């Protein structure tokens, strides 16, 4: 009898422990954040010629919300955009608070960009980042703000009792280091701790309900979303977005892209020096190797350009995205007896602090001198090598990476805009300053001086939300620092995830050793040679405070600049159509028959796509006939197999055409199809009006 009682007590204790470790409420959500697909420059390559001409894939924001048994809650968002701006995050939190009160704040909401370079810009509210977009774009800002709010709202509405699992795997052949000579500047004994000069680990948080039904999976991997190069003019979520579409398709069968309960995200990490163009850089005309130090080609051999593994940038995007998706799927498909996943346990905490980087003063231990060195931040400035661009997207004016000396002509141009002080020049050494952005104030701030530093703790997993692009070794050092600080302060072993490009954008962060090389990433480390050391100091302090449940000073808030934004982008004036046609008229009909791997091309007389972004909807659909009375949508403008290209045919009269391209994949069912286009036109005397066009039906045959 005593043994029976003991067994019962043990069973109840274990049952109670099970309830304790799974005491989370979890929710996931997704929303469309696609901005204007035409006539607006893309954010990422800073290429004034990269103006949107259409849509390849829609861009989405994906969120998870976690709450512990004490009601402590955090929200994390991964958005298909270049990076995040603080003005945008502030607006999202404002909308959340209008609905939920103070449940969501600046402190417990983190918004990270995937770093696609193929989405419309004009939302960052700092002149340097918006200047190639010709200023602020309200339509982009609103589409993103509402979508970011909506994905968190949906995650909140979907909260259920559940569990969280952490796992990781190695994904090879998906990234390379684009500044390997800078990486080699780091100490040999440090580099010897790692097999590769980029991080190959994919880290995954899996969310399930109390019945172990899969709700979502968020995956962090270090790679630039630059498989689509700077010649691309169709809105795209790039390799990270394609991986997400594949993952969601697996668990949302028979659903259109962006639809379905399961949410799968691929999130940015310490990707600063990491490229998806794994075939490496070559001179574009000769095919010869570029100079490894400067990424420069001899005269007549073209630009130094890296390429991906595919025949073109579209196939390269697919290949890299497929490899990432396969890594994530391998973790989700692991059998229980083989699984490397472990359950996440513990409470939810968060901490946040704004830091005025140029006015930061501190000290750090120097292992060489065995003394404390004073460290300080600099006024923001961009170096010469910033203008050289990268092997993913070369710059202009024959600038070279690795430049540590200045040039009188470019100094004259720099000083004409705004000159740096002698203190700035000394502070940034050995970086020669090309743009003294911290001294520029007209018409508003050029780059941020106050940055957001944030940590989210979910059990024994810590997410470090950094406001920039950390390079490989910079991220490794920060992870190690946070892990050590958490262990010392809380006595627990933690998994640390670097979430890049989060909350506000302040370009790059390299290690002090990499800074000396002054390649692109170092020239774009805007607060000077001690930038990384300052972040190490700040995040160590925040980690200790969080583990001890201590509060920290909020720090100075970034300036409110919404009311001073300028834009050179014009709105849609009016739309017109040729005599004898109307909006929605099918100018080019499809052929009667197609086979697998054929391409369907149709053209409609259209209005400007900026008249209506069709958020959460679609500009067109490919429909398959089910019976005499019913057609089923099989593809939309969010599908990888389709493209939408807009052509302005007469600027004065406002004529335009919309070309819809469908590549028939081997997965396509045979049958009868048609293509429908929905749009809006703007009348010359005012008002916007809907229209629709429908092609003849056509047949897709089996091979």
UniProtKB/TrEMBL annotation:
> Under which main EC class is this enzyme filed?
hydrolase
Give the reaction(s) catalysed: an N-acylsphing-4-enine + H2O = sphing-4-enine + a fatty acid
Provide the active-site residues from the annotation: 275
Q: Which GO terms describe its cellular component?
A: extracellular region; membrane
Q: Which UniProt keywords apply?
A: Glycoprotein, Hydrolase, Lipid metabolism, Metal-binding, Secreted, Signal, Sphingolipid metabolism, Zinc
Domain annotation Neutral/alkaline non-lysosomal ceramidase N-terminal: ranges? 24-536
Q: Give the cofactors, semicolon-separated.
A: Zn(2+)
Query: Does Lipid metabolism show up as a keyword for this record?
Result: yes
Q: Which domain of life is it from?
A: Eukaryota
Residues annotated to bind Zn(2+): 115, 224, 469, 508
GO biological process, alphabetically ordered:
ceramide catabolic process; long-chain fatty acid biosynthetic process; sphingosine biosynthetic process
Per the UniProt record, which EC number(s) apply here?
A: 3.5.1.23
Q: GO terms for molecular function, please?
A: metal ion binding; N-acylsphingosine amidohydrolase activity
Do you know which Gene3D superfamilies this protein is assigned to?
A: Neutral/alkaline non-lysosomal ceramidase, C-terminal domain
What are the Neutral/alkaline non-lysosomal ceramidase C-terminal domain coordinates in residue numbering? 539-700
Q: How is the cofactor bound?
A: Binds 1 zinc ion per subunit.
Q: Where does the record place a coiled coil?
A: none
Q: Where is the signal peptide?
A: 1-23
Q: What is its main location?
A: secreted
In which compartments does the protein localize?
Secreted
PANTHER family, alphabetized: CERAMIDASE, NEUTRAL CERAMIDASE
Family designation: Belongs to the neutral ceramidase family.
How is this protein named in the record?
A: Neutral ceramidase
This protein's species is Drosophila navojoa
Organism classification: Eukaryota, Metazoa, Ecdysozoa, Arthropoda, Hexapoda
